[in-house]
Design brief:
The chain is of the alpha+beta class. It has two domains: 2-86; 96-197, Beta Barrel (Barwin-like endoglucanases), CATH 2.40.40. It has four helices and seven strands; from the N terminus they run H-H-E-H-E-E-E-E-E-H-E. It has helices at 2-15, 24-89, 112-115, 182-188, and strands spanning 96-103, 131-132, 135-139, 149-154, 157-165, 174-178, 191-197. A six-stranded mixed barrel has the order 1-6-3-5-4-7. A hairpin with a 2-residue loop joins strand 4 and strand 5. Helix 1 crosses helix 2 (24-89).
Length: 199
């Protein structure tokens, strides 16, 4: 075996066009010194190659798990968004309790602070009409999209309404219903009732 290694080293030097620098006797001695370590180095290299292969397999499995979780999260977000949209704009939702007040288009400047300027957030002129598409205009909380259609039940009466306006105090489950004048708004007052999305 030692003679084979010495021969290989000598052949490599000659094929490279170099003149051997180490005499054959010294080459044999070097081979004897290297041989005991060669097998150890080879087994270490094989063990490291096995470890690297295992780590690559584990990394690939982790990457697959990460991709699966990303898809699951994305699917969950789509599902939540779909459910929210259905609740807000789809089929009828369950009845919820609410608090209802009324407002009207102001007839003079002194009323503007409380009643606005008579133009809804969506551009409806309340001086001309308090309805849109045949529905009563209401100011609703910001989490209910514009043009959402509602049923409001107050004092046994059902009002078909459409969200076309907002208001600083209109939050949570509070709504402001547009009425034609001050007296009708005052008569309506502040009432408890219930509401639901119908479309």
């Amino acid at each position: 075996m030692q003679s084979i290694i010495a021969s290989i080293l000598l052949t490599a030097s000659l094929s490279a066009g170099a003149t051997p620098q180490i005499p054959a006797k010294e080459t044999s001695e070097v081979a004897q010194q290297v041989m005991p370590n060669a097998q150890s180095w080879q087994s270490d290299a094989e063990a490291n190659a096995d470890k690297a292969a295992k780590l690559e397999t584990q990394l690939a499995e982790r990457n697959q798990e990460i991709e699966r979780l990303k898809r699951q999260l994305s699917s969950s977000k789509v599902s939540t968004a779909t459910n929210t949209k259905t609740e807000q704009t789809g089929t009828k939702t369950p009845w919820r309790t609410g608090e209802f007040t009324a407002y009207y288009p102001p007839t003079d400047v002194s009323e503007h602070a409380m009643q606005g300027n008579g133009i809804t957030a969506q551009g409806d002129n309340l001086h001309k009409s308090q309805t849109c598409e045949g529905y009563q205009i209401v100011a609703a909380p910001p989490d209910i999209p514009f043009d959402t259609k509602l049923e409001i039940e107050v004092n046994g009466a059902v009002i078909k309404a459409i969200v076309r306006d907002r208001g600083g105090a209109i939050k949570g489950s509070k709504f402001d219903i547009a009425l034609p004048n001050r007296s009708s708004a005052v008569n309506f007052g502040r009432q408890s009732g219930k509401w639901r999305i119908i479309e």
